[in-house]
Predict the structure.
Amino acid sequence: QTPEAEARAAAEAEAIRWFGGERHVAAVPSAEGPLLLELHRPAPARLDLAVPEGTWRLAADPPTAGLGLALEGATADGEHFTVAPGGAATAVVATPAAGAVLPLRLRAVTLHRVR
């Protein structure tokens, strides 16, 4: 198997692991190569992960109108999310807004530490 095929298989397995059980989210191929996550219903999609303490800003790639991002377990203040010392953020949650044109496509969510 080629390295490209192995990388694609790994990306597909990771997408399935991320959104296992959430039938309204699908991993779809893109013309650029990487898989995209496609949200088909206006329901939250979760990515479980541990985020260390600090203040964070979340950014969708590509920037996606009609998509709300949140850091579960953190305190929200506008576009920033703060994980308190000793606290734990446990998931990134992507939620299409009411009336958003579906499906929404998402390549990545990046967490930027705010200083």
Notes: The chain has a mean pLDDT of 85. The chain has one helix and ten strands. Helices lie at 3-18. The beta strands are 25-28, 36-39, 45-51, 54-61, 67-72, 75-77, 80-83, 89-96, 104-106, 108-114.
